[in-house]
Amino acid sequence: MAKTAPVPKRAQAEETAQPRRPRIGLALGSGAARGWAHVGVIRVLERAGLRPDLVCGTSVGALVGAAYAAGELDRFERWLRSLSMADVISFMDVGLNGGMIKGERLMAFFRAQFVDRPVEALEMPFAAVATALRTGAEVWLREGSTIDAVRASIALPGLFTPVVRDDHLLVDGGLVNPVPVSLARAMGAEIVIAVDLSTDILGRHLRDAEEAPAAAGALGEWKRRLQESLGALIPMSADTPRFPSMLDVLASSINIMQVRICRSRMAGDPPEVIVAPRLAQLGLLDFHRAAEAIEAGERAAENALPALLDLCARV
Q1: How far apart are the first and last CA of the chain?
Q2: H or E element in which residue 211 lies
Q3: Per DSSP, which regions of 191-280 are E strands?
Q4: Confidence (pLDDT) at 90
Q5: What is the reported pLDDT for 212?
Q6: Helix or strand or coil: residue 192?
Q7: Do residues 185 and 25 lie in contact, with contact meaning Cβ atoms separated by under 8 Å?
Q8: CB burial class (10 A; 0-12, 13-18, 19+) of residue 136?
Q9: Would you call 182 a catalytic residue per the annotation?
Q10: Is 200 a catalytic residue?
Q11: What is the model's pTM?
């Protein structure tokens, strides 16, 4: 009887090796206070055993992504859930030189509470998107201070003052790339999970202004005073038609811009999975409503989970 040739050890190893899991990238979109939904999305992914290999974000997506990449998401979520309207107002250092909110109080808080490690030293590959104000160029922040990168990415025009970095004046990355799928691919993602916070928000602020002109609570009082101060710069007569507030017009304009840009960019470079929380009930500055946003993120991620698990099994 002929002897069977022994199977080389390398071939044996190849036969018994488990299929390589595709590299998963998480692209977290912009959306101001709606961004706390990203925490809920991440929680669902991790419970399903789908921990991303890399994360990138624009604006508030960069803020949540940085906390996740630094291994600080638990502490960060506890802080989010503890926020009150008074806390939100305390971070609003109002000024009219480049933006209504300078952002210094908020960044000082983060520097006091979290260790500011370089981006390249975080536990997970991370990057943030900003926009060069003078040229309109998309800027990918992949090294240096993590907090400085986040601060540049969240510099929403008209709301936060711009940031100077490497001789560039940087503002919110949502102007050019609201959901950074392209950045996730550039970082090596084979499957991109895109979290889009803008699917149901068009016209939301204008509808609210018509239905409930007088905002309640401390945040509403802050907005009223700010609008009165700005209104004093532009006197109006008694017969002037009633318009939405400046903040409502600003928020709605930003929403239109980001929705249109996001749709265009994702049509050209579609992600494998889109998670789309329903967040129209949250206003631009409703940062104190973290529990609602996180719950909405969890619901949306759970809805997208079967397709994602199937995709990972087939790739």
Answers
A1: 42
A2: helix 204-211
A3: 191-195, 273-275
A4: 76
A5: 45
A6: strand
A7: yes
A8: exposed
A9: no
A10: no
A11: 0.81
Q: What single letter denotes the amino acid at residue 219?
A: L
H or E element in which residue 113 lies: helix 104-113
**Rg of the chain's alpha carbons, rounded to an integer?**
22
DSSP state of 116: -
Q: Which helix (H) or strand (E) holds 73?
A: helix 73-82
Q: Which residue has tokens 């859930």?
A: 81
- Which H or E run includes 169? strand 168-172
What is the pLDDT at residue 167?
85
Which candidate, 173, 180, 183, places its Cα nearest to that of 59?
173
Task: Return the structure tokens found at 268.
Answer: 């050209």
Mean pLDDT in consecutive groups of 10 residues from the start of the chain, 315 residues: 52 54 94 94 96 96 96 93 85 55 67 86 97 96 94 85 88 94 97 92 52 47 53 52 67 80 90 94 88 97 93 79
Q: Is 54 helix (H, G, I), strand (E, B) or coil?
A: strand
Which residues are CB-neighbours of 263 under 8 A, at least 6 positions away?
none
The first and second tokens of residue 217, run together, are 């609570």
| From 30, 59, 198, 245, active-site residue | 59
- Per DSSP, the chain holds a count of helices (H) and strands (E) of 12, 10
Annotated active-site residue in 53, 148, 153, 172: 172
What single DSSP character describes residue 195? E
Residue of 25, 30, 277, 293 lying closest to 152 (CA atoms): 30
Distance of CA 237 to the CA centre of its chain: 40
